[in-house]
Amino acid sequence: EAQVTQNPRYLITVTGKKLTVTCSQNMNHEYMSWYRQDPGLGLRQIYYSMNVEVTDKGDVPEGYKVSRKEKRNFPLILESPSPNQTSLYFCASSSKGTSNEKLFFGSGTQLSVL
Amino acid sequence: QQPVQSPQAVILREGEDAVINCSSSKALYSVHWYRQKHGEAPVFLMILLKGGEQKGHDKISASFNEKKQQSSLYLTASQLSYSGTYFCGSSDTGRRALTFGSGTRLQVQP
Questions:
Q1: What is the Cα–Cα distance from A80 to A71, expressed in whole angstroms?
Q2: DSSP secondary structure letters along B58-81
């Protein structure tokens, strides 16, 4: 089954403790992206990747890192999480990243930073 | 810059119609529409490309007016299953990412 898999589904952590949220897709998609969703603000893009070893900042990249060493994986790294990074995070992918392709979303990761 | 969606929220009775608007300050290349149920991932509804096309499936359709830099989503004879938050995503080029609006919460009541 074609899917985007995120882990974990829920995560509670404390300020400053490094964490990684994993994202994997099995559709051989070139394009992958991370979004955060906050009430009233919709989905805001954090980082995206057009292909292996190619990443770029989205609209709200501060405090986040990503890497794209393999085509299928696109982990999101919070090196020193802060409470304002408490949010619902979604990973998404599409075939080439052109704007006429639909995005496939993962099931989300609810992160709470205390 | 995020596209602007209106209304922010709407409550309907089953069988009623609704229109959700999405407008941008930039020229648009494409507009996407997604629906998200509470606690779930957004699910793709449709894409509209510049050219003023109108698309639809079942009782949900959408139009795209590139001159006005806006798109509208039409839900006719709404069903309970239509409840959720609707997001438009827009792009001003053929490449790169979508920028999403803040969403429209739709609630269909029996």
A1: 26
A2: TTEEEEEETTTTEEEEEE-S--GG
Length of chain B: 110
Residues 6+ apart with CB under 8 A from B2: A42, A44, B99, B100, B101, B102
Tell me the pLDDT tens digit for each residue of B47-86.
888 776 666 777 899 998 888 889 999 999 999 999 999 9
Q: Give the pLDDT confidence of A24-35 residue by residue, as tens digits.
A: 999 999 999 999
d(CA B46, CA B44): 6
Smallest Cα–Cα separation from A79: which of A23, A17, A34? A17
Let me know: does B50 contact B31? Beta carbons within 8 Å: no
A-B C-beta contacts closer than 8 Å: 66
Is A33 touching B (CB cutoff 8 A)?
A: yes
Of A35, A99, A108, the CB nearest to B95: A99
Distance of CA B83 to the CA centre of its chain: 13
User: CA B42 to CA A105: how far, in whole Å?
Assistant: 7
